[in-house]
Fold this protein.
Amino acid sequence: MGDKTSPANLGAVVAVRGSVVDIRFDAHLPPIYSLLHAQEGEIAIEVLAQLDAQRVRGIALTPTQGLARGMAVEDTGGPLKAPVGKGILSRMFDVFGNAIDRQAAPTDVQWRTVHRAPPALSRRSTKTEIFETGIKVIDVLVPLERGGKAGLFGGAGVGKTVLLTEMIHNMIGHQEGVSIFCGIGERCREGEELYRDMKGAGVLPNMVMVFGQMNEPPGSRFRVGHAALTMAEYFRDDEHRDVLLLIDNIFRFIQAGMEVSGLMGQMPSRLGYQPTLGTELSRLEERIGNTDTGAITSIQAVYVPADDLTDPAAVHTFSHLSASIVLSRKRASQGLYPAIDLLQSSSKMATPGIVGERHYLLAQEIRRTLAQYEDLKDIIAMLGLEQLAPDDRNVVARARRLERFLTQPFFATEQFSGIKGKLVSLKDSLDGCERILRDEFKGYPESALYMIGAIDEAKKKAPADKPAAGVEPGAKPAAKADPEPAADSGSKAKSELQPKPELEPQPEVEHAVDTDES
Ligand SMILES: Nc1ncnc2c1ncn2[C@@H]1O[C@H](COP(=O)(O)OP(=O)(O)OP(=O)(O)O)[C@@H](O)[C@H]1O
Ligand SMILES: [Mg+2]
């Protein structure tokens, strides 16, 4: 790791409390962010406070097992450093830049401090471009920005990691640049799986992975994001390449900061979060950005504690992002994957100047239709669909078809869903939505639109139903549009739902809707 300066500056441990270590230096007090080593470099400590003229307080980035009072501590003479250079491509590292993929440490690398300033305002690029993901609902309703930050918000197990993995899969193949995956405080297993998947897909040569997972001490989880960003900045600034930075999970960074702050003895702020939450997060987030030479596009999963979007961690993260994708448990339980809450998710890119007039108007129309349907749900639950005006009934039919069409089979879930993943171009997605809004698919069963790619697949999927649908359109909408509201209100419509397995090959929707109320 870091290069040592000639005359060793030695100190001695005064106190150890979990991850917090106080050290006494008689000769020269190491500055803030200095990295200290104890037990021949086995234990690394980062200085976070200078208590008085002789003592510093630091947080250990490694377990402190075996550390005792009086032990010698050596000042490395510099901060924590991360390796950068071509040699880090296709490798996997921990927070110290040690290779953790069972291969030799990379040669031809430089070591750079992980504490760096964000690009100056004058160096930032003012271009705005769209970043296509191949995922219908995102490209149409929440377009991502090249060089922007997008957040995937969601409670436990609603599909953040799956969506992130899918985005890696879709973008990495045809993207020129480098991808950096940073795992913060999530499962080690997921890191290992991702590494294997990427290797299998042959995209590892343009990828770097950095992990500080949930089993590691808070100091390590707190700094691993900085290490990943240092690598990303190297590719942007030195090699002038575009970088895709994926972070799973930025909430764990905030949480690690909270643990560090608590251990350091600071007073907690609202809901127990650290008083420095805002500055810590912005110091990391502001380094992500595009300059004229390259861009760092970042996609971050954000765990939302107790599904509460007003949680300070979520609120602070929201303010940094150009696109917020909110995942909803309700949609996940209905089987409508990706479980994106279409009305809560938003993107700053969705303006006519950026996405174009047609796309903008179409997105507005989709949102309006879905919002109207949302409003009508209560009425349907109380009075039934039959009581709606014909116009409203059309809105319901359109909205439900849109919802189905905006689901998509993922490559990342091929193994357990058994459906082949699909990549859909923005043009196909827009065409599909437009044609649904024009009622072109009114005669098709809703399930024909579920988990397909481009809209024409609906025709292939349900050719047999088409003539039938033409015969009974009067009777069908009632049965079709009922299940969802009923799922909220009770089991009444369940019975109406059951006799209508109109499409054998695709029973998932109806099943999923069925189980919703549980
Ligand atoms: N697009 C999808 N298609 C099918 N199933 C999905 C999809 N997305 C998520 N799931 C299901 O949801 C489960 C949980 O997803 P995932 O691990 O991505 O959640 P998470 O939000 O990352 O959870 P955590 O907060 O615990 O990390 C998956 O194992 C899978 O069964
Ligand atoms: Mg996850």
About this structure: The first helix runs from residue 136 to 141. Residues 160-161, 186, 248 surround magnesium ion (ligand 2) (CB under 6 Å). The radius of gyration is 26 Å. The chain has three domains: 9-78, 83-103+129-350, 355-511.
